[in-house]
């Protein structure tokens, strides 16, 4: 029996101890009418060898493609040590660290993670993770509304990932919170602070880089939010922060410098693409907002002998203590991915991450030159991090299909969410793309157009 | 020792990152001015540091971990290895479905198996944990009432034994919460339920077997009361392991359910996650399922989205939830197969009832002595505390010294000094016997040397931690020290 160690002798001895005749008897409190006939759609069990064969066939069926696509999920090199360590049973098969003394490994990993992600974002505090970047945005909006106390409207630019906006909408819509869409400047592909609508808002969401890969004028937007009594919520690519100004420093010099909350998708820091998950959402904030945060938080403390140790803290925010008055319903989070991220950041270090970020930026620059030379010009003027929108001669879907024939995933089609941009394609070249890859892309693109 | 303590300026791992390239085409005011405070350590130092940290954890791979309501069973290694095949890891989430027919086939088959296991009409895999599934489920309940123009339904009912995520979820979906008391047998107080329902009732959230470790015998009557009042019923599938393949929530009359694949389908809990919380729905909630769902036409698979399910509550994640977790669950399901799944509930229940019987013989008091255990049961240490001053917390900590992870403590709140014990089907009789022996020893220690138990644990990397200090003098990052 797979994963059940009982021998016949065990079973009879155990039943005898219980005073039952059969295992069936143990279910005698369940009304007979509810007992099912059994499973019909579940096939017979397979050996590990047979399942391995099956999964390998499925994997080969999918094959491998050259990615020139980002749109919120980026292919990066991950040191081999990361997932070998993450897969250690002591990390992999532990539960949430409820018994602190038996979970110091996990707890210290989270404390180190909180230290590293706040170093990158320039923020003061972090939680232990949320489900993904999109739900982190939703939670940030809920948190901002709680903190603001008066306004229930939040400004969300169209330069935020379209799916993140949809997910946030699902999360806030039943709590009388209104997400007010802000359009972008057609020439530059960023939000013009001067165009923001007057009014009382709980927060302004500021993406950096934005969904088009463009760099927003984060200082002006942060200052606008603060001048209008709104919180500034940064939504950032954590890798980009090895190069870019961290949200904690956004805005002109002054007392309320910096975004109030900074969230994003942790995937670029050690999580494989994996068709979309598991990744993790990070959430960081100013200290003043720590009691409004959702999710688990780890603090350093001492044991009864004065020895340093780690424990879950500020739990009075959470569902298992506060129930209906909790800051969120989140319980299980994405702990193992945070574990991967801590190791990834440690193995790359500040210099390594900066080199990766700079290399992504340079490769995307090369990609843009190469595709421009075959007639696909950037749609927006102005600086990008490692992604950009290009204009094609044909609908992007047709071009992508042709690229796919050459084993290239050629970009993200913007037609559905941004029809005003014409045949626009969002492309990306991370540090994993070589000069040959880029040349192949341009050549294949030229043929496809 | 923190990783930061190993850091030395200028140390790096040249083989892990590309060479430095100058960036001089970005405006200065958008750039970072000083490097982030991240560790500068060698690869070997990092590997040693995190290996040592791992050794400070209890885990299923190292310890019996009978954490009630959490289903800490063995996580088959094959599931991890096969979900991490390079083609699966390298696939971009927005790549066309044509490049992912293999992975989509796995997901589609998982959907079909979960429909069978739950007896529901449709399954959406996208929620990323139990609580996320709860959110999807209650949002669907709301969408259903809204679609009928039934705006008066403003309240969700939960039993007082419910997990904290249930009431927290109801509030996130814009509902108020009313708690229904539990009777002496551990079942819902049905008279109280009858008095609570009405035109304001949106639905009831219920875990069955409940978090008290017993099967709710009056489930059919409960369904009738709620449905007659016009409410819908939600099944919290955290305890599905107890009835897998034996009782289907759909047959119990539930309208919507979530499963915790990181419990019942043995995907690893990862020290806090990731999980997966697929939702199953009855016919009448099919139009509201969260997207994407995997559809099949002929031999090919594709994502169904808002065009296919226009009344959907929408998207729960940026992509398809915790897809790698879903693959692990799929592998587990294929390894078990139909018969293996039936055995899960049988042996989880056998182990729980055996452990309960043995502990009673050893002098422990169980919360519901007239009831069968489901896959878990509750020991109440109230008498022991009155007699010796030893609390459930003390016993839990002392168990760590004996080489066992503690059961769930102080949940559900309505049983004083409770230990919620869930052995799972993957534990052998010898392990259960050793656990009973350990608890017997602790009982003896409590009566003869209470201070010893109160001071536990002694053998863990740290002894009892000062939680008050942790909350009062917040030290949440290594830069906060001394604040
Ligand atoms: C009864 C019950 N419901 C819901 C949940 C929440 O599930 P998750 O932690 O996956 O969000 C749990 C998890 O511990 C639970 O035990």
Main-sheet strand order of chain A equals 2-8-7-6-5-3-4
Number of strands of chain B: 12
- The CATH architecture classification of the largest domain in chain B is 3-Layer(aba) Sandwich
Q: Which ligands does the model contain, each kind named once?
A: pyridoxal-5'-phosphate
CATH class of the largest domain in chain B: Alpha Beta
Task: Give the quaternary arrangement of the chains.
Answer: heterodimer
Looking at the structure, what is the overall shape of chain B?
A: globular
The gyration radius over C-alpha positions of chain A equals 25 Å
In the CATH scheme, what's the topology name of the largest domain in chain A?
A: Aspartate Aminotransferase, domain 2
Query: Of all protein chain pairs, which has the greatest interface, and how many residues does each chain bring to it?
Result: A-B, 201 and 203 residues
The total count of helices of chain B amounts to 14
Task: Tell me the series of helices and strands of chain B, N- to C-terminal.
Answer: HHHHEHEHEHEHEEEEEHEHHEEHHH
Counting helices, strands and paired strands, the structural category of chain A is alpha/beta
**What global shape of chain A is seen?**
globular
- Helical proportion of chain A? 25-40%
Q: What composes the largest sheet of chain B?
A: 7 strands, mixed
């Amino acid at each position: 029996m797979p994963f059940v160690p009982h021998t016949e002798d065990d079973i009879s001895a155990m039943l005898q101890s219980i005073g039952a005749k059969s295992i069936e008897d143990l279910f005698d409190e369940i009304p007979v009418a509810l007992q099912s006939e059994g499973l019909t759609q579940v096939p017979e069990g397979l050996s590990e060898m047979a399942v391995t064969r099956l999964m390998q066939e499925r994997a080969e069926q999918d094959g491998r493609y050259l990615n020139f696509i980002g749109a919120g999920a980026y292919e990066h090199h991950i040191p081999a040590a990361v997932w070998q360590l993450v897969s250690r049973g002591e990390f992999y098969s532990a539960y949430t660290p409820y018994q602190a003394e038996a979970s110091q490994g996990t707890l210290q990993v989270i404390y180190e993670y909180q230290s590293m992600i706040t170093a990158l974002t320039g923020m003061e505090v972090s939680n232990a993770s949320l489900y993904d970047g999109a739900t982190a945005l939703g939670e940030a909006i809920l948190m901002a509304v709680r903190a603001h106390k008066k306004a229930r409207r939040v400004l969300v630019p169209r330069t935020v990932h379209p799916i993140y906006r949809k997910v946030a909408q699902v999360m806030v819509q039943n709590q009388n919170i209104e997400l007010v869409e802000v359009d972008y400047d057609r020439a530059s592909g960023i939000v013009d602070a001067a165009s923001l609508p007057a009014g009382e808002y709980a927060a302004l969401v500021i993406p950096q880089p934005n969904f088009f890969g463009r760099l927003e004028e984060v200082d002006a937007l942060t200052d606008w939010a603060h001048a209008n009594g709104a919180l500034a919520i940064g939504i950032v690519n954590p890798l980009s922060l090895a190069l870019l100004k961290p949200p904690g420093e956004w805005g002109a010099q002054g007392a309320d410098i910096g975004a109030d909350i900074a969230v994003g998708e942790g995937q670029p820091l050690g999580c494989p693409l994996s068709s979309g998950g598991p990744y993790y959402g990070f959430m960081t904030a100013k200290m003043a907002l720590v009691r409004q945060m959702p999710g688990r938080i780890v603090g350093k403390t001492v044991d009864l002998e004065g020895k340093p140790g780690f424990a879950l803290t500020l739990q009075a925010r959470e569902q298992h203590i506060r129930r209906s008055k909790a800051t969120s319903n989140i319980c299980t989070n994405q702990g193992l991915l945070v574990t991967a991220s801590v190791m990834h950041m440690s193995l790359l270090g500040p210099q390594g991450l900066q080199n990766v970020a700079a290399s992504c930026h340079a490769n995307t620059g090369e990609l843009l030159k190469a595709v421009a030379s075959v007639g696909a010009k950037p749609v927006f003027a102005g600086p990008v991090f490692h992604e950009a929108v290009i204009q094609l001669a044909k609908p992007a879907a047709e071009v992508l299909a042709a690229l796919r024939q050459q084993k290239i995933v050629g970009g993200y089609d913007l037609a559905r969410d941004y029809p005003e941009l014409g045949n626009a394609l969002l492309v990306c070249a991370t540090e994993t793309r070589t000069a040959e890859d880029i040349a192949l892309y341009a050549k294949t693109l030229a043929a496809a157009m | 020792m923190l990783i930061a303590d190993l850091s030395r300026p200028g140390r790096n791992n040249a083989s892990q990152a590309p060479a430095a390239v100058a960036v001089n085409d970005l405006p200065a005011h958008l750039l970072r001015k000083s490097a982030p405070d991240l560790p500068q350590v060698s690869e070997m130092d990092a590997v040693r540091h995190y290996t040592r940290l791992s050794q400070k954890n209890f885990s299923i791979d190292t310890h019996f971990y009978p954490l009630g309501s959490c289903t800490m069973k063995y996580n088959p290694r094959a599931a991890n290895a096969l979900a991490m095949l390079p083609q699966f890891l390298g696939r971009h989430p927005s790549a066309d479905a044509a490049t992912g027919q293999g992975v989509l086939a796995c997901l589609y088959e998982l959907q079909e198996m979960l429909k069978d296991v739950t007896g529901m009409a449709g399954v959406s895999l996208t929620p990323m944990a139990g609580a996320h599934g709860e959110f999807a489920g209650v949002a669907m309940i709301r969408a259903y009432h809204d679609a009928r123009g039934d705006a008066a339904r403003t309240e969700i009912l939960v039993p007082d034994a419910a997990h904290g995520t249930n009431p927290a979820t109801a509030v996130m979906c814009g509902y108020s919460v009313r708690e229904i008391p539990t009777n002496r047998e551990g079942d819902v107080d049905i008279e109280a339920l009858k008095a609570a329902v009405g035109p304001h009732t949106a639905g009831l959230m219920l875990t069955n077997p409940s978090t008290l470790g017993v099967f709710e015998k009056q489930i059919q009557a409960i369904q009738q009361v709620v449905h007659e009042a016009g409410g819908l019923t939600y099944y919290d599938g955290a305890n599905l392991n107890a009835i897998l393949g034996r009782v289907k929530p759909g047959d119990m009359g539930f309208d919507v359910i979530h499963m915790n694949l990181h419990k019942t389908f043995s995907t690893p809990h990862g020290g806090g996650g990731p999980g997966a919380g697929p939702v199953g729905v009855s016919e009448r909630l099919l139009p509201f399922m969260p997207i994407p769902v995997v559809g099949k036409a002929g031999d090919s698979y594709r994502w169904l989205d808002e065009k296919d399910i226009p009344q959907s509550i929408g998207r729960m994640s940026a992509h398809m939830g915790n897809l790698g977790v879903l693959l692990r669950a799929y592998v587990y399901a294929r390894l078990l197969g139909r018969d293996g799944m039936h055995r899960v509930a049988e042996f989880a229940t056998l182990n729980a009832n055996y452990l309960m019987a043995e502990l009673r013989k050893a002098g422990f008091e169980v919360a519901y002595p007239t009831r069968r255990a489901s896959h878990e049961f509750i020991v109440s240490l109230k008498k022991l505390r009155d007699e010796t001053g030893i609390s459930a917390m003390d016993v839990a900590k002392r168990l760590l010294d004996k080489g066992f992870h503690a059961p769930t403590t102080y949940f559900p709140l309505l049983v004083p000094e409770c230990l919620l014990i869930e052995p799972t089907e993957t534990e052998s009789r010898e392990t259960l016997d050793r656990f009973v022996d350990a608890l017997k020893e602790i009982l003896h220690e409590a009566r003869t040397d209470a201070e010893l138990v109160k001071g536990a644990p002694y053998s863990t990397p740290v002894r009892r931690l000062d939680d008050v200090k942790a909350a009062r003098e917040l030290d949440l990052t290594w830069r906060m020290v001394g604040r």
